[in-house]
Write a structure and sequence with these properties.
mainly beta, UDP N-Acetylglucosamine Acyltransferase, domain 1
């Protein structure tokens, strides 16, 4: 599901793909050709999470930020199944 938080909704490129049961919350940006797979949660409630061109977040990953630490994932990266990333770049 796509959730706006404090009036800020995720920004999803037209050719990005999001699984129907993935959760994108708040300050999340998906660049072109990126994808978020089944059961993943990207929680951009504190800072921005940006997924670079052609990158993918695989099944059941959890991404979350800390204040002052946005999460920037470069182009053509893979975050593997069930990984948890918290406040990192």
């Amino acid at each position: 599901m796509i959730y706006a938080l404090d009036g800020i909704a995720p920004q999803i490129a037209a050719d990005a793909w999001v699984a129907p049961d993935a959760n994108l919350i708040g300050k999340v940006v998906l660049e072109p050709e990126s994808s978020v797979w089944f059961g993943a949660t990207l929680r951009g409630d504190n800072e921005e999470i940006r997924l670079g061109r052609g990158s993918n977040i695989q099944e059941n990953c959890v991404l979350h930020t800390d204040m002052g630490y946005p999460m920037l994932i470069g182009a053509d990266c893979t975050i593997g199944h069930k990984a948890m990333l918290h406040g990192c770049t």
